[in-house]
What we know:
- The protein has 434 residues and is mainly α.
- The protein has a domain at 352-433: Alpha-Beta Plaits, CATH 3.30.70.20.
- The chain has helices at residues 2-17, 21-48, 69-87, 101-104, 108-115, 121-143, 148-174, 195-202, 206-230, 233-236, 241-248, 261-290, 299-322, 324-327, 331-335, 338-350, 367-371, 378-384, 398-402, 427-433; strands at 353-357, 408-412.
- It has a two-stranded antiparallel sheet.
- The radius of gyration is 23 Å and the shape is globular.
- This is 4Fe-4S binding protein.
- The chain crosses the membrane at residues 27-47, 68-88, 122-142, 154-175, 207-229, 270-291, 306-326.
Amino acid sequence: MLAVVAGGLLALLLALADADPSRRNSWFWLAVGLVSAGTLAWSWLKYGRQPAGVRQNNLWLRASTGRGAVAWVTGLVLTGFYVVLYWFSNDDGQGNFGLLTNLVHPLDGLSQALRARPADQWFLYGTFYTLAVLLMGGRALWKYRHSRYQLIRTVSVMFFQLGFAFLIPGLLQFFQQPEFYFSYFWPLKYDYLFPGTVTSLLQKGGLGVFMVFWGAVMSLVATPVLTYFYGKRWYCSWVCGCGGLAETAGDPYRHLSDKSRVAWRWEVRIIYPVLGLIVAITALLWVHFATGGTLLGAAGNVAAKWYGFAIGSVFSGVIGVGFYPIMGSRVWCRFGCPMAAYLGLLQKHFSRFRISTNGAQCISCGNCSNVCEMGIDVQQYAQRGAPIVRASCVGCGMCSTACPRGVLNLENGPREGRTQASPLIHADSLRILS
Length: 434
């Protein structure tokens, strides 16, 4: 089945190089069909015919998942694709999208049916992104079919990516309405609360007003409430498209996340300043708007554009996805996402969510730490029976799923239970782990 996938990738290269429109389209759709069929069939052969359960055999010995040659090539290809997508595929006004032209135009028919307009580089990206989530989501369903939590969570991210991040935005354009992603909120979709975006939406009538209302309420009201009851998992592991790609396409690389305290220090040093930066830019733009555009001049818009370039493009795209095979699947979520930082602060200081542990049952196998894509050394908590209350935890539940002894449990309980631990734990140990 991997040969079928390889054949699909070869067909994609032929589509990229073929100047004949008819053959190009045929090669493209053949590539999509072969990659899709091969991925799903391989997933069934690898996981569907074996007993259910998490297996981590030889992950560090494979060239594809142990930072070997295959991993580096994969990382370079992904990084290169994002670089071309962001900076070398702009439409020249005549339907030429640079190096991606031969991949964009085969999607014109689908784009016309969904959006009533020809395809562009962003429609190509959205199609590939959604296809990756769906196909690798199918793989995850086979792999984790023994866990009801993982099955529901995987179906959820597949549903939100297909419906809320692909079909609905396209249909809105079909009916000549603003393109809007109902599953992305400020500060991740930072411009949704910028005065320019808000003003533009309000001029679109009732639907635009609803979009502004939805964005503001979800960001400022619903997010704190939902995080209080369920932790950041309600969004990062169930709804967000970035998290959806990490949990599906990035699943083979989750063990690569750095568990060291040095990595944790860099995480804190980077992610909270990113949050502070977008909060400051948003506030300044609103002050600038309220003063009639006299306070900042062009500085506010320049700052927003540079934020979009450095954080929205380079960090979240090029590094966030391109570095999956080298640094793990949650590089962006862990080090750069302002939404993750916002949710993390709420989770650590106000939420009822925690992962409880039973140290008496822990056999120190290390499975829990190995599968944690957020770089948390879960085993240290489990050995001590300490509850895990970390801002970075996305509540994916993989540590609990991988534990052979049932030591770890995801809970939404009273806040006082978040700090209870075994009486054998020394206070200094709890301080180090927090």
